[in-house]
Amino acid sequence: MTSTPRRTTSALAAGLAGSLLVGLLGGSSVAAPRETLFPGQGNAGYQVRAYDVSIDYQPTTNRAIATVRIRAVARTALRSFHLDFDGARVTSVVVDGQPARSTREGTELVVTPSAVVDAGRFSVTVSYDGRPPEVVDADGSTEGWVRTTDGAIAINEPVGAMSWLPSNNTPGDKARFTYRLSAPAGYSAVANGELVGTAPHGTGTTWTWRQEEPMSTFLAVVGFGRYDVVESSVTSVDGRRLPLWFFEDSLVGASERAREVLPEVIAFCEELFGPYPFSSGGHVVDDAYVGYALETQGRPFYPPDGADTSTVVHETAHQWFGNSVTLTDWHDIWLAEGFATYAEWMWSGARGGRTPQEHFEALYSRDADDDLWSPAPVRFTDPADLFGEPVYARGAMTLHALRREIGTRDFLDLARRWAADFAYDNVRTRDLERLAEKVSGEQLDELFDDWLRRDGKPRGY
Ligand SMILES: [Zn+2]
After folding, report:
1. Which positions fall inside the Peptidase M1 membrane alanine aminopeptidase domain (predicted)?
2. Of the candidates 120, 128, 134, 139, which lies 20 to 30 Å from 337 by C-alpha distance?
3. How far is Cα 194 from Cα 178, in angstroms, rounded to an integer?
């Protein structure tokens, strides 16, 4: 994510406070790691393998008639289970082909199958009909199903997917996605992954998109509108042809530069971090005035005037750091934002602008009472601090301090191995610390404690 100046109303999303997450046979607890910033999101009793999302959308009324089929694996027998969902009226729930009961509890859809689901594979299909809501975040920004002049765009970091996608809405549960998006004549529909095909649907069209590489729900994107569609391609460093799809709202404009610079940015990132991790790229530019760009997987979202080159570098670097290598717990978001911000610094240094060292020095010269220094990047407790300056700027400074400690060669080796060893996986900060010590052969706890865990300005750097 890249923020333009953010609003700071304190609309702490009370609905996120969670209840019990999963009904387990015998009441035993499941030893799956819990996400701790949004404890109401995510469900430990099962792991999703695939989402098959069909949405028939009417742009003029914002009505979505949707069916979401989830294929999942139960970790244990389930008498009932929860999906994260705070969207429109549910019209039916089916588990393994049998009608199931469901109730709404806050942001949860509680599903009780007609028979206990045994451990192992099962499927659940949820249908709903109505207007998906927007979600207001703790920092006052808007996500979820966001209305535009000519349709809607679903952008979902951190928890907005619950507004339109019944799901296990936690970063640690990655799955494959298929989207079948139907829109009236004159409209088009975009999502993550590759365009499999289009087919007539009434007087309009169904667009089928498939995201084969695993994806966390917060990285999903769905857009309906009167887009200008541009297709091109780029060849990755390992010789793959990557199709690029650009969906651009003609009302917004100014996205041509972002489109044209993308192949160069991908090449720049590949040289530093290794092969592009996904099978396609592009972007979505829409008139959603949310105040941020977002690294939605393979196809970032840009708001009006939000696609300057530095932002394109940031969102592209996220494809490695954040999207392929993904945090497990939101407290570790600096792993995504620190790397993406540092990639911006490397780009500017390589293009004759400020070097990473100059970025670091400019920030380090700030007073000890500056907001940059507290809370330390992994120490925040308020969801409103999720996209704060300590996460981004101090996160990037952490990487620069590390680079100065272990040297540029080991640092770049670390970045590449981080992207390769944990590709498509979920990670925690300690995974990076261990790998950094392994690559450099140095003891680094002091440095990571100084930069990531101690509030206040780190001394002696
Ligand atoms: Zn970001």
Report:
1. 309-451
2. 134
3. 10
The predicted pLDDT at position 11 comes to 31
Separation between Cα atoms, residue 158 and residue 219, nearest integer Å? 9
Q: For position 196, what pLDDT does the model report?
A: 97
Q: Which two tokens stand for residue 224?
A: 């309906």
- Ligand 1 center–CA 265 separation, angstroms: 15
Cα-Cα-Cα-Cα dihedral sign, residues 177, 180, 184, 187 = positive
Does a structural domain hold residue 251?
no
With beta carbons less than 8 A apart as the criterion, state whether 343 and 272 touch. yes
Flag whether pLDDT at 55 surpasses 50. yes
User: What span, in angstroms and rounded, lies between the C-alpha atoms of 103 and 138?
Assistant: 26
* Centre of ligand 1 from the C-alpha of residue 340, in Å: 6
Distance 317 CA to ligand 1 centre (A): 9
The answer to whether residue 1 is domain-embedded is: no
Residues 198 and 235: beta-carbon distance below 8 Å:
no
310 in a structural domain: no
- Cα–Cα distance measured from residue 38 to residue 47, given in angstroms and rounded to the nearest whole number: 18
Distance 343 CA to ligand 1 centre (A): 11
Measured in angstroms, how far is the CA atom of residue 460 from the centroid of ligand 1? Answer: 28
Å from CA of 294 to ligand 1 middle: 7
pTM of the predicted structure, to 2 decimals: 0.94
**220 and 161 Cβ atoms separated by less than 8 Å:** yes
- Structural domain boundaries, residue 378: 327-453
Which pLDDT belongs to residue 6?
Answer: 38
Residue 72 lies in a domain: no
Q: In angstroms, what is the span from residue 352 Cα to ligand 1's centroid?
A: 23
Q: pLDDT tier at 18 (50, 70, 90 boundaries)?
A: very low
Q: What's the pLDDT tens digit per position in 435-461?
A: 999 999 999 999 999 999 999 999 999
The answer to whether residue 389 scores a pLDDT higher than 80 is yes
Supply angle C-alpha 137, 141, 145, rounded to 5.
Answer: 80
pLDDT higher for 458 or 36? Answer: 458
Number of domains in the chain: 1
CB 381 within 8 A of CB 435: no
**pLDDT tens figures, 112-121:** 999 999 999 9
Q: Which residues are within 8 A (CB) of 252 and not within 5 positions of it... i.e. 6 or more apart? A: 285, 286, 287, 304
